[in-house]
Write a structure and sequence with these properties.
Layout (H helix, E strand, L loop, with lengths): L2 H30 L8 H18 L10 E5 L5 H9 L4 E6 L2 H14 L4 E5 L12 E4 L3 H14 L5 E5 L10 E6 L5 E7 L4
Parallel strand pairs: 1-2, 1-4, 2-3, 4-5
Antiparallel strand pairs: 5-7, 6-7
Length: 197
């Protein structure tokens, strides 16, 4: 077999394998109106920094996150959930994602990094019960956050931390804002606490 024929076969296999992946990603993006996109590394780092600061300042009983349940809603390909599991090894970290291929990829990624406190779950986060959450991590458009707000108000315990990468939750006042990038981009991390009652 010539080298060119071998490369043609490999290329064909890659293209044929990519087609169902692309179709699946497009289908779930259209169905949920959310694409499985990960945030940039410096924003993920800022989210974890904010979480550490909040735990140190407001959770004297658990500054290292011991025993906490941390959800990443819309975990996509899993980098933030993996980083959170590493940063908070005594917490339970759960990545929720509806699109099956990113969930499958995330599970492999989690196993490769060997974080026993990390789970990726294929779930519709609008349907998932979040009553056990201590922390919610988000990277979602404001149009989705507006729809999630009533669920948060109904299900989450008072004091639950919600850390939103880039996008505000309309109608709630953040307890803190971490400025990551100034104008013209204005990239911020918004920190909320679920109000009592």
């Amino acid at each position: 077999m010539s080298w060119n024929l071998f490369l043609d076969i490999v290329f064909a296999i890659i293209v044929l394998g990519a087609i169902p992946v692309i179709i699946s990603l497009e289908y779930y993006c259209h169905k949920t109106k959310v694409s499985a996109v990960s945030s940039v590394p410096w924003m993920r780092k800022a989210v974890l920094k904010c979480l550490k600061e909040q735990l140190c300042n407001h959770r004297a009983d658990s500054p290292q996150g011991e025993g906490l349940v941390i959800y990443e809603m819309g975990s996509g390909w899993g980098p933030l959930a993996v980083d959170a599991a590493k940063a908070f090894p005594k917490s339970k970290v759960i990545g929720l994602e509806f699109s099956p291929i990113p969930v499958w990829f995330s599970r492999i990624r989690g196993k490769l990094f060997g974080h026993k406190n990390l789970t990726f779950k294929r779930a519709d986060f609008f349907e998932e019960d979040l009553r056990d959450a201590d922390v919610i991590l988000l990277y979602m458009l404001e149009s989705i956050l507006v729809k999630l707000k009533p669920k948060f108000e109904e299900e989450l315990k008072p004091g639950t931390l919600i850390i939103s990468n880039t996008f505000k939750i309309k109608g709630w006042e953040p307890v803190a804002v971490e400025e990551v990038m100034k104008k013209p981009l204005e990239l911020n991390v918004y920190i909320y606490k679920v109000p009592a009652g």
